[in-house]
Design goal:
Blueprint (H helix, E strand, L loop, with lengths): L26 H7 L7 H4 L19 H20 L6 H10 L11 E8 L5 E8 L5 E8 L10 E2 L18 E2 L5 E2 L5 E9 L2 E9 L5 E3 L5 E3 L5 E10 L15 E9 L4 E10 L4 E6 L8 E2 L6 E8 L4 E8 L5 H7 L4 E2 L3 E5 L6 E5 L7 E7 L2 E3 L3 E5 L5 E10 L18 H4 L11 E7 L7 E9 L4 E8 L14 E5 L8 E8 L2 E6 L4 E6 L11 E6 L5 E11 L6
Antiparallel strand pairs: 1-2, 2-3, 3-4, 5-7, 6-7, 7-8, 8-9, 8-10, 11-12, 12-13, 13-14, 13-15, 16-17, 17-18, 17-19, 19-20, 21-33, 22-33, 23-32, 24-29, 24-33, 25-26, 25-32, 26-27, 27-28, 29-30, 30-31
Bound molecules: 2-acetamido-2-deoxy-beta-D-glucopyranose (9 copies).
The site of one 2-acetamido-2-deoxy-beta-D-glucopyranose has 3 residues, from loops.
């Protein structure tokens, strides 16, 4: 396998349906993009360059704020070029986007994130944030110039632009990221824009009959005091009866609504599940909170500015998220790139109704190569076993089952709050049940490894399962951000199997616990555990035995672009 090929990767050639778009544009960015084909092999042969995650070929932006924000937007821009061209020739579009440059929406003005809405008749329209001559954030419309062009290469901005400008007390620098619009039975379109007034985060609602003339509603769809600026809001229905996705405009019985916002203060994505009342045009949250950073999250690691879209071809809702680097700015400059996209994930409401579930879209399985299958294995206390035959890009799924779960007396006591201090203590702190799990991207002498593991605590009346991703030993380079992440798993370990699925791709580890109940994404930069020197282990450092009932791992092929 190896990583000598310089192709960037895409894995969902059969992906169809509605899409979102995020964009940033300037001549400079586009020029960079158009050098796609000729980026140097010194970049693609880097150990941290991913094999099957989506990332831009390179970016050479200078200037601190520009560098950070534009790289993320740049990432989105590439998505734009791929996703704007949505429709029915997806795989061709992907190829075109990479070999022929990009679909340009903004040639002459700066623009930020936006979303695609599919209008009746199937034609896409993009609402996006532009920056006007006075440096104000405003919302604009773009529609394809030639609907017969399968790549939708050219877009028109109607003379009515801008369609929405910061009104009342809205700060002109805090008014951005329109969602996909939805239409009610009253034939009125709605869209929300992320904003804030003072420190109150807002999802400002606009309505329109014709998609061009938009009027601001008196009341926001939702707002929360002291939550700061809301970026990239997302508002969509989920079925309470089925894991299938539904179109953004669906309301009615067996539907709940999800409002997600990207809290600028924390650089993290939070969501609430609730009820949307289309009469009052408000969201009434049942679960989750934006008040502080204790609410429900898509991902408890690095994951920001995500958006979903409804894929009508496969009736699923798909989540995309942006993943920042954890390396220093100077290291990023040396690498020549920064930022990538998480594996696209299916998103649906858990049977409990209390949280969302996520799972990598099945298309990724096409990239599976060499498989390693392990017989069931008992992990004694303090044991560690190597799993061989896997390359640095790995994907694996394992089920652990503890033995003797009920016999334990000496549980670590655990309060009812979401207290992650235990996670921060890392894998080396021992308990009865756990830590047990995996060491991924581990070097020969274990100078470097990333531990993805469980710990189980006794709560008041139930067991509490904590899943962690501990980066503290991930690299001997101490300049990186090595924060360890933790997430609680809403499952009963006495009656349910525990599982982890990790998508490991050189500098990223995306882990899904409990079949998608909690996700943690980490960025890591090993210096020893690279290429064929990256190993995989299962370990159990708890005092109780743990049975691995099944473990499968696949080497992942690099995605190809023809
Ligand atoms: C629109 O696109 C189609 C397909 O590429 C092309 O044949 C046609 O000439 C285009 N029309 C215009 C007005 O450019
Ligand atoms: C925002 O803060 C300013 C200054 O403290 C205050 O005058 C204004 O009333 C506040 N606006 C709102 C909507 O609370
Ligand atoms: C835009 O819509 C509002 C509300 O429906 C209406 O009052 C106004 O006349 C419309 N403006 C134009 C230019 O059509
Ligand atoms: C939010 O802030 C506003 C204005 O300061 C205040 O009137 C309102 O009571 C606050 N709401 C909550 C839930 O604290
Ligand atoms: C929506 O709000 C209106 C006005 O407050 C209320 O009459 C109606 O019952 C609400 N609908 C639902 C489904 O809760
Ligand atoms: C990206 O991550 C770095 C390192 O953890 C952090 O310093 C920076 O603020 C992050 N940037 C964004 C836009 O989240
Ligand atoms: C979290 O737990 C730690 C150790 O158990 C404790 O010291 C700390 O006060 C707790 N923090 C919160 C916010 O409850
Ligand atoms: C497991 O415990 C051993 C002995 O205390 C320690 O050396 C090792 O680092 C622990 N493993 C992990 C993954 O923390
Ligand atoms: C471990 O799990 C395997 C597979 O389910 C099972 O066959 C085996 O008996 C288990 N071992 C123990 C000691 O429970």
């Amino acid at each position: 396998m190896g990583y000598s090929s310089i192709c960037l990767f895409i894995f969902f050639a059969l992906f169809l349906g509605h899409v979102f778009v995020k964009l940033e544009a300037s001549q400079h960015v586009y020029r960079t993009l158009q050098t796609c084909q000729s980026f140097s092999s010194s970049i693609t042969s880097q150990p941290y360059r991913t094999g099957y995650h989506f990332q831009p070929p390179s970016s050479w932006m200078n200037g601190k704020s520009f560098f950070i924000s534009v790289l993320s937007r740049f990432e989105f821009l590439i998505f734009t070029s791929l996703l704007v061209s949505l429709t029915f020739v997806w795989s061709h579009v992907l190829i075109t986007a990479w070999t022929n440059g990009c679909v340009c929406i903004c040639r002459s003005q700066r623009c930020w994130s936006g979303s695609v809405t599919i209008l009746p008749g199937g034609n896409p329209a993009v609402l996006y944030t532009g920056i006007d001559a006075g440096n104000k954030q405003v919302q604009n419309l773009a529609v394809p110039k030639n609907l017969s062009d399968p790549y939708l290469k050219e877009w028109i901005k109607p003379p009515e632009n801008p369609l929405m400008v910061p009104a009342d007390q809205i700060d002109p620098g805090s008014f951005r990221d329109p969602t996909t619009a939805w239409i009610g039975p009253d034939k009125i379109w709605r869209v929300i824009i992320g904003s804030k007034i003072n420190d109150t985060g807002l999802a400002i609602l606009y309505r329109s009959k014709d998609f061009v003339n938009w009027t601001k509603a008196e009341q926001s769809l939702y707002s929360t005091n002291q939550s700061g600026m809301w970026e990239c809001p997302d508002f969509f229905p989920v079925s309470t009866k089925s894991p299938k996705g539904v179109d953004t405009s669906v309301i009615g019985p067996n539907i709940k609504h999800v409002l997600k916002v990207s809290l600028s203060n924390y650089q993290q994505d939070y969501y609430t599940i609730g009820t949307y009342n289309i009469t009052t045009d408000t969201h009434i949250a049942e679960e989750g909170s934006f008040d502080d950073n204790s609410g429900l999250r898509y991902d408890y690691g690095k994951f920001y500015a995500s958006k979903t879209f409804f894929d009508s071809a496969k009736n699923r809702r798909i989540l995309w998220g942006w993943i920042n680097e954890s390396s220093t700015r100077s290291d990023n400059l040396k690498k020549g790139w920064a930022g990538l996209q998480a594996t696209p994930r299916n998103l649906w409401l858990d049977k409990s109704g209390r949280q969302l579930m996520q799972w990598p879209i099945s298309e990724i399985e096409k990239l599976r190569g060499n498989q390693v299958k392990w017989p069931a294995k008992l992990l004694e206390r303090g044991s560690m076993v190597g799993i061989t035959g896997i390359t640095a890009a790995q994907m694996l799924r394992s089920h652990f089952r503890q033995l003797l779960l009920r016999k334990r007396k000496c549980w670590t006591q655990f309060g009812p709050t979401r207290n992650f201090s235990v996670a921060k203590r890392g894998a080396s702190v021992k308990g009865a049940l756990g830590p047990f799990g995996l060491l991924v991207l581990a070097s020969n002498g274990l100078q470097e490894y990333t531990a993805v593991f469980f710990r189980i605590f006794k709560g008041q009346d139930r067991h509490i399962v904590l899943m962690c991703s501990d980066q503290s030993r991930s690299s001997i380079n101490d300049d990186n951000d090595k924060t360890s992440y933790g997430a609680f798993l809403d499952l009963d370990p006495v009656h349910e199997k525990l599982s982890i699925r990790s998508l490991i791709d050189r500098s990223i580890v995306e882990s899904f616990g409990g079949g998608g109940k909690a996700c943690i994404t980490a960025r890591i930069y090993p210096t020893l555990a690279i290429h064929d020197k990256a190993h995989l282990y299962a370990f159990n450092n708890g005092t109780e035995k743990v049975n691995i009932t099944s473990l499968r791992a696949w080497s992942m092929k690099k995605a190809q672009i023809n």
